[in-house]
Records
---
Amino acid sequence: MSQIRIYHRLESPTQTPAIAQLQKKSMELWGSPPHNTYQSDIPKVKAYEGSLPKRARGIEFTTDIEPDSGTPPGKGVCWSNLQKGVRIAEKEDGRTYAIIKVLTLVNHQL
């Protein structure tokens, strides 16, 4: 059985307050393929382990879906279609996203 863990996402151009509201309403997080150093064609939901840092803006959530293994320490975690509980969907913009259900989600806005 999977363990329930706390994760967070900092507010950013891709994690806006408006998106946080949609996430709270749907209790789902969506992720596209990474475009940074760890570029990939595989869509992934990305986050960091633990609670949101004090005075930071963003979301804090729990899920019982295990993240992908092998993530370098301090680089965050991700969920891809390699994990049970992750589903893949294409949006009307033609982009493909990984989706996970969350159990709780708190939207921290200052």
Note: Residues 65 and 85 are 6 Å apart (CA to CA).
---
Amino acid sequence: MNDCIFCKIIKGEIPSSKVYENEKLIAFNDISPKAPTHILIVPKEHIESSACLSGREDISGAVFNAVAHLAKELNLENGFRVVTNCGRDGRQSVPHLHFHLLAGKELSEDM
């Protein structure tokens, strides 16, 4: 996708504060954090949303391996939240699959 902001970040066309990367994904700090720790975990392959993950255990596995790695590296022993939004009604703001890792304070029970 030529106009996808996450694809541009992955290609290095837009700077980011990268905190993790492997062959399948990149993770970077959100520019508008909703918690003291707010990291976006984004597959390098353009996948529109979680609705497109059927049969893509390689991607979902890579995401949750990254979550576990980051939680340990960032000492998130008090807990964290992992969220992905899907589609318009789910409030997905960028049509490229991404996961939010939120931590660093007691999070609201409201989703």
Note: Residues 57-73 form the longest helix (17 residues).
